[in-house]
């Protein structure tokens, strides 16, 4: 009986992050205790139903989710019922807003905080979009700015500055639907770069100012933090798949072989490759493999990676925070494993650059110690900080789904504080 109670308690403390990516679907199981988070199970499966971060085939996505979850269940020795799912794609839009209210009893109460956030989000959002996150940046009481926690403070006027992230309703619904069909409840939908930031950024970097660049298979996700708060988010529909496609065309080799060549021999700076290094390239149509210079591969990758970083740099400049990212740029996501990535990024951004691996976790650290798992681990960290917040039960009808999604957004405000 005691053993069963212990197992039930352990199961209650398990949090599962489901990174639904363009190239892979990854389920990561974390056990939360007072000491921190231990990673106890990992499952990955090739992703077949997504394009540029958006679900385009539900059946294929469901099959991939099931495979990844079963693998994670086997490793963790538990049954997975609920997950924190990541969302990305070119449809994601982030913007800043602010609201002002009069403080009722000259002292800030939870109700005042709720009202000021409501005022900040009282903006026109198109019917086909929904709010995914409302992230408070700072509060201002009677012209005193920089306040993180306003509760209990005296004043007459309360202002809130928030960052609002919105996404296409259909894309969010398709993620929920895919998880539900795979037999999972969705505890929350989380912006992928927000999750990655939880796993790879330090509090000092967020305070000083940092740009997180998460380059996945189909998208490049950007998040800028200044003064400990998120200031800007955006998603570019460019990623590692474009590099693979360039290799396949440039070296005239099948896509599957191009992906292997990229992972094994890829380098995005031709200056780092020796002149006499060679690679074997399989041909299409049953022809014999060819021996080519590795530098040729680097010369194919270099302009595409430079283009991605130039677009990211343009996005950072457009955000208006380019002078505030004093601690530099952190690269994460599977594509950033490519040799020469930090060096190329330093040239383009003219800032310090490092690769971001998941930190401050225990358990299977050696396995997840890679930018590939940054989003999955980050979803577990996000879940541990927001544990107990509502879930999406298995949904029966689309009408029910609409109602629950909109109710979740309203609840979020009250539960954040």
Report the average pLDDT across residues.
89
**Global outline:** globular
Q: Per DSSP, what share of the residues sits in E-state strands of 2 or more residues? A: 25-35%
Q: Please name the CATH architecture of one domain.
A: 2-Layer Sandwich
Provide structural commentary.
The protein has 417 residues and is an alpha/beta fold. It is globular, with a radius of gyration of 22 Å. Helix content is 39%, strand content 29%. β15 and β16 (290-293) form a beta hairpin. Mean pLDDT is 89; it is low at 2-9 and 390-399. The longest helix has 26 residues, at 294-319. The chain has helices at 2-12, 58-76, 110-120, 169-181, 192-200, 203-208, 240-250, 255-265, 294-319, 341-349, 365-368, 374-385, 398-416, and strands at 14-20, 24-33, 36-46, 50-51, 54-55, 82-87, 93-102, 129-141, 144-147, 157-168, 185-191, 210-215, 220-226, 229-236, 278-281, 290-293, 329-332, 353-355, 362-363. Among the domains are: 93-169 and 395-416, 2-Layer Sandwich (Dna Ligase, domain 1); 203-356, ATPase, nucleotide binding domain (Nucleotidyltransferase, domain 5, 2-Layer Sandwich). The relative contact order is 0.16. It has a six-stranded mixed beta sheet, with helices on both faces. A five-stranded mixed beta sheet has the order 14-13-12-17-18, sandwiched between helices.
Supply the key terms.
single chain, 417 residues, Dna Ligase, domain 1, six-stranded mixed β-sheet, five-stranded mixed β-sheet, globular, Nucleotidyltransferase, domain 5
